[in-house]
Amino acid sequence: MICTGSQVKAARAMIGMGQRELAREAGCVVNTVVGLEASDAVKASYHTVAKVQRVLESRGVVFIGLPQPGVKFARWPAPKASPDDKAQD
Q1: Domain range list for the chain
Q2: At what angle do helices 5-15 and 30-38 cross, to 10 degrees?
Q3: Start-to-end Cα distance in the chain
Q4: Quick one: which of 73, 70, 47 has its CA closest to 59?
Q5: pLDDT classification of 1: cutoffs 50, 70, 90
Protein backbone atom coordinates (compact mmCIF):
# COMPACT_ATOMS: atom_id res chain seq x y z
CA MET A 1 0.00 0.00 0.00
CA ILE A 2 1.34 3.42 -0.91
CA CYS A 3 0.48 6.26 1.45
CA THR A 4 -1.64 9.31 0.65
CA GLY A 5 -0.72 12.96 1.13
CA SER A 6 -3.14 13.24 4.05
CA GLN A 7 -1.48 10.28 5.72
CA VAL A 8 1.99 11.77 5.22
CA LYS A 9 0.88 15.05 6.80
CA ALA A 10 -0.80 13.28 9.73
CA ALA A 11 2.15 10.95 10.28
CA ARG A 12 4.65 13.78 10.20
CA ALA A 13 2.58 15.80 12.69
CA MET A 14 2.11 12.77 14.92
CA ILE A 15 5.86 12.28 15.33
CA GLY A 16 6.75 15.97 15.40
CA MET A 17 8.84 15.91 12.24
CA GLY A 18 9.29 19.00 10.07
CA GLN A 19 8.82 19.01 6.32
CA ARG A 20 12.48 19.87 5.75
CA GLU A 21 13.70 16.99 7.88
CA LEU A 22 11.39 14.56 6.10
CA ALA A 23 12.54 15.80 2.70
CA ARG A 24 16.20 15.57 3.70
CA GLU A 25 15.84 12.02 5.04
CA ALA A 26 13.83 10.91 1.99
CA GLY A 27 16.33 12.46 -0.41
CA CYS A 28 13.90 14.88 -2.04
CA VAL A 29 13.28 18.63 -2.00
CA VAL A 30 10.91 20.18 0.53
CA ASN A 31 8.54 21.26 -2.27
CA THR A 32 7.94 17.57 -2.99
CA VAL A 33 6.76 17.00 0.58
CA VAL A 34 4.66 20.18 0.52
CA GLY A 35 3.01 19.15 -2.75
CA LEU A 36 2.42 15.59 -1.58
CA GLU A 37 0.74 16.78 1.60
CA ALA A 38 -1.39 19.34 -0.24
CA SER A 39 -3.20 16.75 -2.35
CA ASP A 40 -4.03 13.07 -2.25
CA ALA A 41 -3.57 13.09 -6.04
CA VAL A 42 0.08 12.05 -5.95
CA LYS A 43 2.23 14.19 -8.21
CA ALA A 44 5.56 12.76 -7.04
CA SER A 45 6.99 9.56 -8.46
CA TYR A 46 6.05 6.25 -6.86
CA HIS A 47 9.72 5.82 -5.89
CA THR A 48 9.80 9.17 -4.07
CA VAL A 49 6.53 8.56 -2.23
CA ALA A 50 7.80 5.12 -1.19
CA LYS A 51 10.98 6.71 0.22
CA VAL A 52 8.91 9.25 2.18
CA GLN A 53 6.76 6.41 3.51
CA ARG A 54 9.83 4.36 4.53
CA VAL A 55 11.27 7.31 6.48
CA LEU A 56 8.04 7.71 8.43
CA GLU A 57 7.75 3.96 9.00
CA SER A 58 11.31 3.95 10.36
CA ARG A 59 10.07 6.40 13.00
CA GLY A 60 7.34 4.02 14.15
CA VAL A 61 4.45 5.06 11.91
CA VAL A 62 2.09 2.42 10.53
CA PHE A 63 -0.02 3.34 7.51
CA ILE A 64 -3.56 1.95 7.60
CA GLY A 65 -5.29 1.13 4.33
CA LEU A 66 -8.91 0.91 3.30
CA PRO A 67 -11.73 1.15 4.25
CA GLN A 68 -10.61 4.04 6.50
CA PRO A 69 -7.05 5.12 5.69
CA GLY A 70 -5.06 6.60 8.54
CA VAL A 71 -1.88 6.32 10.59
CA LYS A 72 -0.96 4.96 14.00
CA PHE A 73 2.16 4.22 16.05
CA ALA A 74 3.77 0.82 15.75
CA ARG A 75 5.42 1.42 19.10
CA TRP A 76 5.30 4.03 21.83
CA PRO A 77 6.87 6.50 22.25
CA ALA A 78 7.94 7.44 18.74
CA PRO A 79 11.30 9.18 18.32
CA LYS A 80 11.01 12.97 18.34
CA ALA A 81 12.27 15.28 15.62
CA SER A 82 14.73 17.98 16.60
CA PRO A 83 13.30 21.40 17.58
CA ASP A 84 15.25 23.02 14.72
CA ASP A 85 13.27 21.13 12.11
CA LYS A 86 9.88 21.99 13.60
CA ALA A 87 10.76 25.68 13.81
CA GLN A 88 11.58 25.84 10.09
CA ASP A 89 8.11 24.78 8.89
Answers
A1: 5-80
A2: 120
A3: 28
A4: 73
A5: confident
CA distance 64 to 42: 17
Residue 10's pLDDT is 93
pLDDT in tens, 40-83: 666 788 999 999 999 999 999 998 887 777 777 676 555 566 66
- The CATH number given to 5-80 is 1.10.260.40
What is the spatial distance between Cα 85 and Cα 89, in angstroms, rounded to a whole number? 7
What Cα–Cα distance (Å) separates residue 74 from each residue in 17, 42, 82? 16, 25, 20
What per-residue confidence (pLDDT) applies to 84?
A: 58
